[in-house]
Amino acid sequence: MIARETVSEVLAEPRGGEDVPPVVVAGEQPSQVTAAVPGSVVPHWQKGLVPAVLAPDYRRIMDVLAGGNGACGEAMDCRRLASALGLEPVPAKVEGVRSKAKRLAARGWLAEERPGLFSVTAARAGGS
Fold this sequence. Notes:
Layout lengths: L1 H11 L43 H10 L10 E2 H7 L6 H16 L4 E4 L2 E3 L2 H5 L2
Antiparallel strand pairs: 1-3, 2-3
Helix pairs in contact: 3-4
């Protein structure tokens, strides 16, 4: 009986993560922009969308591939990408980076030139 009441109360509460985060477009200053947080949904890339809408881990991947850590915009495999992010190139870390890179590629933020080899175009890196 107590468990049913507790479950009913929990299900009756509004869910916290249902609001869609605002889209930030380059050159616009929205009145109230909330930064993406870890666990945020990766939006599909469209013209004018800036990497600021991505969660911190995804922004770091975009920064490294765009040349922020000396990569000069070249394509990288996940092992090199993990090292550039400051992670040890052990299988668990590399697979985490691969999962995030694949998600970015599937949503149009990155290009996967060959299986496992990721790069970002200048347009996507700069948000134009």
